[in-house]
Specification:
3-stranded parallel sheet; 2 domains; Rossmann fold; binds glutamic acid; 3-stranded antiparallel sheet; about 325 residues; about 15% strand; alpha/beta; Glutamyl-tRNA Synthetase, domain 3
Length: about 325
């Protein structure tokens, strides 16, 4: 496949104006209040703009992904009234497609093997809580000879060369975002030690192939967006609009996790009685509706416009689950 054919010209929807959103769950656990808010927002953004939604099960990590979780996720989305128009697509068995993107970058000398272990990186600089990890470029300047020698005896991850320039865009909810990948992130991994392709690469390739124009997801992924934009540019793929929605956190300020069983859908259903009760409570916490009332996603569409939606969530980074 040539580069332009593989990455760009055959993207469904790349040239029309229809908003195509997506749900991109990783099937590694059950759905909880944080995911529900993110999927609800993704759905609203598409529907309020007359668009459609693609479902992609992000099962790239074969060790953590379980098909039972994927099935449960789809059932839960349906139960909540969060419908999709296309998919489910999967990431497993798509190595050939990701490899074509990887090869096109490598052929241009934009990738290099990295032999640093997690322990090496940690010893070099242990980021403090909340700080970004910046790869110091340890393996960037290895000679061709040294690389060959090491590759014959050690597994390598593959990093993408970053440039000292700012990647800037405006997030629909979080406003202007700007990141210098060289100083704020460093060369990042696009292929892992075990040969599998990394999230950043797969997501960019999949979004383009599936015609996604609107990426709505949790605030924790905001920092990934400049990396994804950079990859889109290098691969000649269309940009997408971003909207990073607030994270739902536990009352102690920590991210919701498996420990917070009361934020899982089953507990929420026990507490609020119906899927509409759950949607209503989460919408109320997010400030999308003024009262904690029972409401279905379809009914929310009558309460909101796209600008009202944006206004309600603008600048919010987290919401306390209560
Ligand atoms: N698969 C990721 C998750 O479930 C989302 C990735 C994305 O939206 O780009 O958190």
């Amino acid at each position: 496949m040539t580069e332009s054919k593989a990455f760009g010209s055959n993207c469904i929807g790349a040239n029309d104006q229809t908003v195509v959103g997506r749900f991109a769950p990783s099937p590694s656990g059950r759905i909880h209040a944080g995911n529900i808010l993110a999927y609800l927002c993704a759905w609203l953004v598409a529907q309020l703009q007359g668009g459609r939604v693609v479902l992609r099960i992000e099962d790239l990590d074969s060790e953590r992904s379980k098909s039972a979780y994927a099935e449960a996720l789809m059932r839960d989305l349906e139960r909540l009234g969060l419908t999709w128009d296309e998919g489910p697509y999967y990431q497993q068995n798509r190595d050939e497609v990701y490899a074509a993107a990887f090869d096109s970058l490598s052929e241009r000398g934009l990738t290099y093997p990295c032999f640093c272990t997690r322990a090496d990186l940690h010893a070099a600089s242990a980021p403090h809580a909340g700080e970004r990890f910046v790869y110091p470029g340890t393996c960037r300047s290895l000679s061709e000879e040294a690389r060959k020698e090491l590759l014959s005896v050690k597994p390598a991850a593959w990093r993408l060369l970053t440039r000292d320039c700012d990647i800037a865009f405006t997030d629909e909810l979080q406003g202007p975002v700007s990141m210098n990948l060289a100083s704020d992130c460093g060369d990042f991994v696009i292929r892992r030690f075990d040969g599998s392709f990394a999230y950043q690469l797969a997501v960019v390739v999949d979004d383009a192939e599936q015609g996604v124009t609107s990426v709505v997801r949790g605030y924790d992924l905001l920092d990934s967006s400049p990396q994804q934009r950079y990859l889109q540019d290098l691969l000649g793929l269309p940009h997408v609009e971003y909207a990073h929605v607030p994270l739902v956190v536990a009352p102690d300020g920590r991210r919701l996790s498996k420990r917070n069983r009361d934020a899982e859908l089953e507990s929420l259903l026990g507490r609020f009685g119906t899927p509409e009760g759950v949607i209503g409570h989460i919408s109320y916490l997010a400030g999308l509706i003024p009262y904690d009332e029972t409401i279905a996603p379809d009914e929310l569409l009558c309460e909101l416009t796209y600008s009202k939606f944006v206004e309600s969530l603008q600048g919010k980074k987290q919401i306390v689950f209560s």
